[in-house]
């Protein structure tokens, strides 16, 4: 029998197993379901951007909020009357702001995991070989840009606030409207998702090493950490609530949904 | 109650080898490692397997069972159907010595590349003052039993042998995070994590967390916080500017 010592070259080789994976469970379900859900979201968002019926008093469709263009935003739809983009801007108003929530989700640690698995198959699932010959991950351009997530987080706080204001406006204008409550639920989940962000966890106190010297921040960190443990769930729930709320408002605006308490 | 189970076990020295079929008795309450030992005792006396505690605490018996990295001693036979063929192979990311035994020295080498705990020079032993909440976070990481299944499953090196020199693997990036979060560690871990130990290679797909037998939240509690600390140091212009203007350092906060 040959000795396999550390010097032996044979010992430098992994098991030459041909199969890409020996897993017997349905490992392809997670990437497949992710792919389908995200594609549905992308398709809806693309349609929503170009759809013009984003406002019906007092409801504002979240994908187009805040509305910043004078030409396309009715007076009532503007945030405190604020519309810095003059008549020259005639493109859909959603285009002006959508980059912020989109960037936040795109660089979110949960979404990264999900689309690296579901879209890029890197890896499709654990212990399943990926199809790429080379891999450098987020160590260099372009994926190193994912590190700007924190800036999108700051923007997401603002957007979350604006959606909350929209919900309050709806509540004042039509407290018994179904749309009001849909907007409120959406605002709650969007803000919970934003607060559960890993960057938020880091900023509250994750970056500190002496928790005991910062009791208030430590408490905040404990709270954010609890939310953070549910980051994936909140990301998905808020994705559905924002899509649902947006569609609902547009259907009311189009008169397709028109029962009395709509 | 006992039944005959179908097993396919990787046999071979070095990388060469093949899956060999066995039919073997299984009794109530047994785990996969018991069955491997029964094969040794009855049909394949030269079958090599590494094990020690049989209690999920020594981290020796890491193997891949039906394609998933698992501890042989903690994988109950009752989780499989009686008519299922159970495939047992060595960890894929490391070179094989014989059968199920791999050479895990990659991990020891990576461990050595990380500078050990570095306290400030003006604090003497006996003067350290830390509260429980200051060290709680890193205590989670100390549950590690060094089974190396996280490093084995990580696609960065599992699928790309060429990345091994540049990437320390989740186990040791977690070690860096542990030291960086330590109230009394002053070594520079952030730049080193990114430049020397390959933190950027991790794409947070969480397979390390999925396989960890100690259920350590490696990605959420060590790797992502470490990435955020690197962002502080390198990619956040506001922080960078603040540090330049006020000449402050993060080390002791
Ligand atoms: S989360 Fe990062 S370190 Fe863990 S398995 Fe995935 S790529 Fe590797
Ligand atoms: S972190 Fe978990 S999976 Fe990795 S070596 Fe330690 S115990 Fe094993
Ligand atoms: S024999 Fe010790 S962990 Fe399995």
Automatic annotation (TrEMBL), chain A:
Regions crossing the membrane: 27-50, 88-111, 151-172, 178-195
Name of the protein in its database record: Succinate dehydrogenase
Keywords: Membrane, Transmembrane, Transmembrane helix
Taxonomic superkingdom: Bacteria
From TrEMBL, chain B:
Named cofactor requirement(s): [3Fe-4S] cluster; [4Fe-4S] cluster; [2Fe-2S] cluster
Record's keyword annotation contains Iron-sulfur: yes
Recorded GO MF terms: 2 iron, 2 sulfur cluster binding; 4 iron, 4 sulfur cluster binding; electron transfer activity; metal ion binding; succinate dehydrogenase (quinone) activity
GO cellular component, one term: plasma membrane
Recorded metabolic or biological pathway in which this protein acts: Carbohydrate metabolism; tricarboxylic acid cycle
Alphabetical GO biological process terms: respiratory electron transport chain; tricarboxylic acid cycle
EC identifiers of the protein: 1.3.5.1, 1.3.5.4
Highest taxon listed in the record's lineage: Bacteria
Domain 2Fe-2S ferredoxin-type: 5-92
Pfam families: Fer2_3, Fer4_8
Stored PROSITE patterns: 2FE2S_FER_1, 2FE2S_FER_2
SUPFAM superfamilies with a match to the protein in the record: 2Fe-2S ferredoxin-like, alpha-helical ferredoxin
InterPro entries given in the database record: 2Fe-2S_ferredoxin-like_sf, 2Fe-2S_ferredoxin-type, 2Fe2S_fd_BS, 4Fe4S_Fe-S-bd, Beta-grasp_dom_sf, Helical_ferredxn, SDH/FRD_Iron-Sulfur, Succ_DH/fum_Rdtase_Fe-S
Keyword terms, alphabetized: 2Fe-2S, 4Fe-4S, Iron, Iron-sulfur, Metal-binding, Oxidoreductase
Family affiliation: Belongs to the succinate dehydrogenase/fumarate reductase iron-sulfur protein family.
Name of the featured protein: Succinate dehydrogenase / fumarate reductase iron-sulfur subunit
The organism of origin for this protein: Streptosporangium sandarakinum
């Amino acid at each position: 029998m040959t000795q396999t010592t550390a010097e032996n070259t044979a010992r430098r080789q992994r098991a030459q197993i041909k199969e890409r994976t020996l897993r017997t469970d349905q490992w392809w379900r997670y990437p497949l379901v992710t792919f389908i859900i995200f594609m549905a979201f992308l398709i809806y968002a693309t349609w929503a951007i170009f759809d013009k019926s984003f406002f019906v008093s007092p409801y504002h469709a979240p994908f187009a909020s805040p509305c910043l263009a004078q030409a396309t935003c009715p007076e009532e739809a503007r945030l405190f009357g604020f519309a810095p983009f003059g008549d020259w801007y005639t493109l859909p108003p959603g285009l002006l702001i959508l980059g912020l929530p989109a960037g936040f989700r795109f660089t979110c640690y949960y979404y990264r995991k999900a689309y690296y698995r579901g879209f890029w198959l890197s890896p499709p699932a654990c212990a399943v070989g990926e199809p790429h010959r080379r891999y450098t991950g987020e160590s260099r351009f372009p994926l190193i840009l994912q590190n700007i997530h924190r800036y999108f987080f700051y923007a997401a706080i603002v957007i979350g606030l604006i959606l909350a204001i929209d919900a309050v406006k709806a509540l004042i204008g039509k407290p018994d409207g179904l749309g009001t409550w849909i907007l409120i639920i959406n605002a709650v989940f969007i803000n919970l998702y934003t607060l559960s962000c890993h960057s938020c966890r880091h900023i509250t106190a994750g970056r500190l090493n002496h928790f005991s010297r910062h009791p208030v921040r430590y408490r905040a960190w404990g709270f954010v950490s609890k939310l953070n443990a549910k980051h994936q769930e909140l990301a998905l729930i808020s994705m559905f609530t924002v899509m649902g709320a947006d569609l609902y408002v547009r259907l009311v605006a189009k008169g397709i949904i028109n029962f009395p308490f709509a | 109650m006992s039944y005959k189970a179908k097993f396919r076990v990787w046999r071979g020295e070095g990388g060469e080898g093949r899956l060999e079929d066995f039919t073997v008795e299984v009794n109530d309450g047994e785990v996969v490692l018991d069955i491997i030992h029964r094969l040794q005792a009855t049909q394949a006396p030269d079958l090599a397997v590494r094990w020690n505690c049989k209690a999920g605490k020594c981290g020796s018996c890491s193997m891949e069972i039906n394609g998933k990295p698992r501890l042989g001693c903690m994988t109950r036979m009752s989780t499989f159907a009686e008519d299922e063929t159970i495939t047992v192979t060595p960890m894929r990311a490391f070179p094989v010595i014989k059968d199920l035994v791999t050479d895990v020295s990659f991990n020891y080498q990576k461990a050595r590349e990380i500078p050990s705990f570095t306290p400030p020079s003006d604090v003497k032993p006996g003067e350290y003052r830390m509260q429980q909440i200051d060290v709680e976070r890193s205590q989670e990481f100390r549950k590690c039993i060094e089974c190396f299944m996280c490093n084995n499953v990580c696609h960065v090196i599992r699928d790309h042998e060429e990345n091994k020199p540049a990437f320390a693997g989740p186990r040791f990036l977690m070690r860096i995070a542990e030291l960086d979060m330590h109230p009394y560690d002053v070594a520079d871990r952030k730049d080193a994590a990114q430049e020397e130990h390959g933190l950027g290679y991790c794409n947070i797909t969480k397979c390390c967390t999925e396989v960890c037998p100690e259920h350590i939240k490696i990605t959420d509690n060590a790797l992502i916080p470490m990435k955020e600390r690197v962002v502080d140091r390198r990619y956040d212009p506001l922080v960078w500017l603040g540090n330049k203007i006020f000449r402050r350092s993060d080390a002791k906060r």
